Description:
By secondary structure, the chain is an alpha/beta fold. It is built from nine helices and seven strands. The chain has helices spanning about 1-5, 20-30, 45-55, 70-80, 105-135, 160-180, 200-205, 205-215, 225-235, and strands spanning about 10-15, 35-40, 60-65, 90, 140-145, 185-190, 245-250. Strands 3-2-1-4-5-6-7 form a seven-stranded parallel β-sheet, with helices on both faces. Strand 4 (about 90), helix 5 and strand 5 (about 140-145) form a beta-alpha-beta unit. It is globular and about 50 Å long. It starts with a helix and ends in a 6-residue tail after the last strand. Belongs to the short-chain dehydrogenases/reductases (SDR) family. InterPro entries: NAD(P)-bd_dom_sf, SDR_fam, Sec_Metab_Biosynth_SDR.
Amino acid sequence: MPPYFSLAGRTAVVTGGSRGIGHMIAKGFLEAGATVYLCARDAQACEAAASELGHLGECHALAANLASEDGIKAFADTLGTRIDRLDILVNNAGTTWGAPLEEYPAKGWEKVMQLNVTSVFGCIQQLLPLLRKAASPDDPARIINIGSVAGITSHGEQAYAYGPSKAALHQLSRMLARELVEQHVNVNVIAPGRFPSKMTSFIANDAEAMAADCAHIPMKRWGREEEMAALAITLASTAGAYMTGTIIPIDGGFHL
């Protein structure tokens, strides 16, 4: 089995990699043999995560604010001084905003759309030259965008911009998959349901809310760290070399 799922010799970037789903994926990539560059806005948290994961393999921290075009360009420039090719890009950095419908602010909508859609597009734009250098017909470079079942279902929980932002990311990913396939760059989406993260901590820390939330999931539980890592490794390895343009829910059946 190892040759099918090995990431030995490959370099990966994971945005929002200091915690939550990004941290799960970064850990899995390291265990599979990849060199990983973590990107997060909080430099201290980014360094701490890289230090924590360093015993698993070569893990580097690159603090950057991806919420602006200048921040993305600065990140790409810095990364370009460290590596000459990029095998795997995981666009995980994202945000949400919740408020009642009639009170939902424009600034909340704009913040969510900026980080969840526009910034992902910018990261792909800026890092595409490095991805092209790693790409080949037998071993395509990989872009893995982290979407959400909120972009598939109508359950919004008063986070009115979040679901539409993820639906937009799903469609952007399909468009890029079609365009980049001839350049040997695969683009796929992982659409998580409930996993432990800062975004879902308000539920995880409330036993009653947690029980009520799990009642709506056919498998009656949240996803586990190793399940997220395994799916990301699949898409990044030989196992996923013939996959592009896919939106993969990992949600215990919630999207059904």
